[in-house]
């Protein structure tokens, strides 16, 4: 159904794209700095036509990182409401540490499910992705009840698949840690398991070479930062009139310098906050430390 709706809107999307194309063509073709670019663009495409094109694009497209067809989800909210109260009343989820945020959100729904309101302000949103946050949390910080409900349900399904959520008693969806050896039973077989896996008897001995590899990779990358073509990502942040700003480029070249009230987290202006990727050895070391 979503594909059929999208096909029906292709003509409107084409018209909007052509209008925006004309405006961009003026920007790219006219290299004279004395030219009034706005006047040149509006001479080819009216301001009203551009505004209409932007609205059409906003309506008919979604950001590249939005992997969920939200509008299709909203249509099923009445059906969800028919079963959700029973689910909330009947299921008391328990969780591993990784799934505790989902349990908090589920319990919040249970406690506030009967409230006749369309928005909340205190609902837990730990673990919410940027794509979901864009539709759940408004500019004023209010949380949309309908969108939040779907986000919680998606988190529950993910938690079930990853075994981070469980119920007791249950054989299939019980605590995945229940079958692990504990206490004296584990201590009895621990030496044999360690020998089989060829691990050191203490964690420090296992982590030391990884820590040294990570430290060496970091120092090598820092020493060759200016000439390292394998570092394609750079992010600088600085304080603008409306708050902290950020921008990315290859190696951070061409970005405005940070001001003394520099980046989020308190990084000084002489050392602006920067996040970099690219060192293969560093990446391997990090993946060994954090296999996920």
Written account of the structure:
With 292 residues, this protein is mainly alpha-helical. It contains 12 helices and 6 strands. A two-stranded antiparallel sheet has the order 1-4. Strands 2-3 form a two-stranded antiparallel sheet. A two-stranded antiparallel ribbon has the order 5-6. A hairpin with a 2-residue loop joins strand 5 and strand 6. The radius of gyration is 27 Å and the shape is flat. The relative contact order is 0.06.
Describe the secondary-structure layout.
Layout: H1 2-8, H2 10-29, H3 37-44, H4 47-60, H5 70-74, H6 77-90, E1 94-95, H7 100-112, E2 119-120, H8 130-136, E3 143-144, H9 145-162, E4 165-166, H10 183-197, H11 203-223, E5 234-240, E6 243-249, H12 280-289
Antiparallel strand pairs: 1-4, 2-3, 5-6
Mean pLDDT: 76
Give the low-confidence spans: 234-292
Largest sheet: 2 strands, antiparallel
Order of helices and strands: HHHHHHEHEHEHEHHEEH
**What percentage of amino acids are in beta strands?**
5-15%
Q: End-to-end span in angstroms?
A: 35 Å
Number of helices: 12
Shape estimate: flat
Over the alpha carbons, how many angstroms does the gyration radius reach?
Answer: 27 Å
Helix content: 40-55%
The total beta strand count reads 6
Strand order of the largest sheet: 1-4
Structural class: mainly alpha
């Amino acid at each position: 159904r979503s594909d059929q709706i999208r096909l029906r809107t292709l003509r409107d999307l084409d018209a909007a794209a052509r209008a925006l194309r004309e405006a961009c063509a003026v920007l790219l073709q006219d290299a004279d700095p004395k030219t009034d670019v706005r006047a040149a663009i509006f001479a080819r495409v009216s301001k009203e036509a551009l505004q209409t094109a932007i609205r059409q694009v906003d309506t008919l497209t979604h950001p590249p990182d939005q992997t969920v067809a939200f509008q299709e989800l909203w249509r099923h909210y009445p059906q969800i409401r028919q079963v959700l109260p029973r689910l909330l009343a009947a299921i008391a989820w328990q969780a591993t540490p990784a799934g505790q945020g989902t349990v908090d959100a589920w319990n919040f729904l249970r406690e506030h499910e009967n409230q006749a309101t369309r928005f909340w302000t205190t609902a837990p949103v730990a673990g919410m992705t940027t794509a979901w946050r864009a539709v759940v949390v408004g500019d004023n910080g209010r949380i949309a009840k309908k969108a939040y409900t779907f986000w919680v349900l998606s988190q529950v399904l993910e938690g079930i698949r990853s075994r981070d959520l469980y119920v007791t008693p249950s054989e299939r969806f019980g605590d995945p840690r229940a079958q692990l050896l504990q206490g004296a039973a584990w201590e009895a077989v621990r030496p044999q398991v360690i020998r089989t896996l060829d691990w050191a008897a203490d964690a420090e001995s296992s982590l030391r070479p990884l820590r040294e590899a990570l430290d060496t990779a970091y120092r090598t990358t820092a020493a060759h930062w200016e000439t390292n073509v394998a570092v394609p990502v750079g992010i600088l942040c600085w304080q603008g009139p409306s708050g902290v700003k950020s921008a990315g480029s290859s190696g951070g070249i061409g970005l405005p310098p940070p001001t003394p009230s520099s980046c989020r987290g308190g990084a000084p202006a002489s050392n602006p906050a920067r996040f970099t990727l690219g060192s293969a050895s560093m990446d391997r070391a990090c993946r060994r430390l954090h296999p996920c």
